[in-house]
Amino acid sequence: KRTSPAQTEFYQAAEEVLYSLQPLLEKYPKYKKHKIIERIVEPERQIMFRVNWLDDNGEIQVNKGYRIEFNSALGPYKGGLRFHPSVNAGVIKFLGFEQIFKNALTGLQIGGGKGGSDFDPKGKSDNEIMRFCQAFMSELYRHIGANTDVPAGDIGVGAREIGYMFGMYKKLANKYEGVLTGKSLKWGGSLVRTEATGYGCVYFAKNMLAARGESLEGKRCVVSGSGNVAIYTIEKLYHLGALPITCSDSKGMILDEEGIDLLLLKDLKENQRARLSEYIKYRPNAKYIPVEEYPQGRNAVWSVPCFAAFPSATQNELNLEDAKALLANGCKCVSEGANMPSTAQAVDLFVETKIAYGPGKAANAGGVATSQLEMAQNASMLSWTFEEVDAKLEQIMKNIFESASSTAAEFGQPTNLVLGANIAGFRKVADAMIEQGLV
Ligand code: NDP
């Protein structure tokens, strides 16, 4: 029942999950008896708050802040904070809902949550970013804690923002604890956390392809986005001998047939915080296509012939027409770094055609899994090496693939990882909810 019709993204995410749960609900009546569906679609707690801050001109600015503590059956609420002008209650709710099942799939003890603000970090000075982060945390701090709710980054929230928010939390709560993940390596962060979502998404693709006797080696790959997830997807693709040839931002895309220049991309995005259009100044053989020149209603990244595609920017960036273009050009694998990047119709087509399709909640779970490894290191006051964390990440991605694919096989649709991931994640949370009673 759509009781909040404005929350379109939330209904899109919930309908996909509920649809794939049908075979499970029919086979095991206990989930209906305990009203798990009715309970799981309602967040345990939703916090909405005002964020006042002063810009560099001394003007008062007002934004909306959100934290949705969706489900704590498996552990403390865990999920990122997104700062982007498109953020609203429906977007945070869809992200929080997906997070419940994603976190369950990792096999680690973490519940699901998500938060953020409609604040736009673009064009803001460093001081403005700091003042906003401090103002945001001046309300959020009372709701979170190392054993209660542990936020992380997402779109618009990276190490800089986590640093400013951590500083304010520490001051207000008078506690130095692992309350945020994605921290700097100098004060409590974990090695591999920066790389984890992108690396994990490529590990997931590797597992999907290995099960079909294929690999990424020597293959052309397309990637969308040019933020944290996209950059480390490209890096891991190179490690595995693949050729990533595209990246994008909200203004346009780069096609570099010789392979994306990773050092240049990192410098532009991580150091200079520049637009992607700058890339062709340094790589004149590459092509920049501004969004105005994209085919009507489409994302040009998905028209580039490739073996594998890695959507790594944002929700609904790949629609049915894009999906058809990918398949027509011979694409055999789609592994989602972003959350819900493919529309429902695009997902249906990928599932129907039985390509190697890894839905975001499985393929991009490496980020939150490594956040949990950061929490474990903080709690034990230890730091693990890069190799140790990377090996754990690779194993977790393998386990997630095996759990989704064996569950899909159990329900008679062995290649349908949407069904497999949704059922495998749901089952863990639902069983914990039943055992913990009606709370
Ligand atoms: P970043 O902020 O680092 O990068 C986001 C990238 O996506 C930028 O290139 C941005 O372009 C582009 N983008 C954002 N919004 C839009 C839009 N509306 N239209 C077109 N392009 C857009 O974020 P992340 O890389 O961290 O996140 C990317 C995706 O991955 C998100 O869906 C996020 O939820 C998901 N994810 C991230 C995880 C993490 O660990 N960081 C974990 C799991 C999932 P521009 O700069 O022009 O806005």
UniProtKB/TrEMBL annotation:
Q: Which gene encodes it?
A: gdhA
InterPro entries, sorted: Aminoacid_DH-like_N_sf, Glu/Leu/Phe/Val/Trp_DH, Glu/Leu/Phe/Val/Trp_DH_C, Glu/Leu/Phe/Val/Trp_DH_dimer, Glu/Leu/Phe/Val_DH_AS, Glu_DH, Glu_Leu_Phe_Val_DH, NAD(P)-bd_dom_sf
- Give GO BP annotations, semicolon-separated: glutamate biosynthetic process
List positions binding substrate.
K78, Q99, K102, G153, S371
List the PANTHER family. NADP-SPECIFIC GLUTAMATE DEHYDROGENASE 1-RELATED
Residues annotated as catalytic: K114
Annotated NAD(+) binding sites: T197, N228
Q: Which NCBIfam families match?
A: PRK09414.1 (NF006929)
Q: Which domain of life is it from?
A: Bacteria
Cross-referenced SMART domains: ELFV_dehydrog
Protein's name according to its UniProt entry? Glutamate dehydrogenase
Q: Which GO terms describe its molecular function?
A: glutamate dehydrogenase (NADP+) activity; nucleotide binding
Outline the extent of the Glutamate/phenylalanine/leucine/valine/L-tryptophan dehydrogenase C-terminal domain. Answer: 190-437
Q: Which organism is it from?
A: Arcobacter ellisii
Task: Give the protein family.
Answer: Belongs to the Glu/Leu/Phe/Val dehydrogenases family.
Coiled-coil ranges from the UniProt annotation: none
Keywords from the UniProt entry: NAD, Nucleotide-binding, Oxidoreductase
How does it associate, per the subunit comment? Homohexamer.
Q: Which residues form the signal peptide?
A: none
Site keyed Important for catalysis: positions: D154
Q: Which GO terms describe its cellular component?
A: cytosol
